[in-house]
Amino acid sequence: MEELKQSVCIICNEPKAEGILVVSEFICEECEAEMVRTDVQDAKYPFFIHQMKQIWYSKNA
After folding, report:
1. How far is it, in rounded angstroms, from Cα 34 to Cα 20?
2. What is the pLDDT of residue 59?
């Protein structure tokens, strides 16, 4: 059986096999889909912004 490499999602902090890389940080498919559907008025929007800033901070560290 082939084992899939899992990466930890920068949004949900869960290990997942499928997702995207933004700069050098992993975002799982579920979080990507949820972020795309989230309206700026949604209560979860600031959380997503905060988590996405981690990409900027790690790139400029």
Report:
1. 14
2. 65
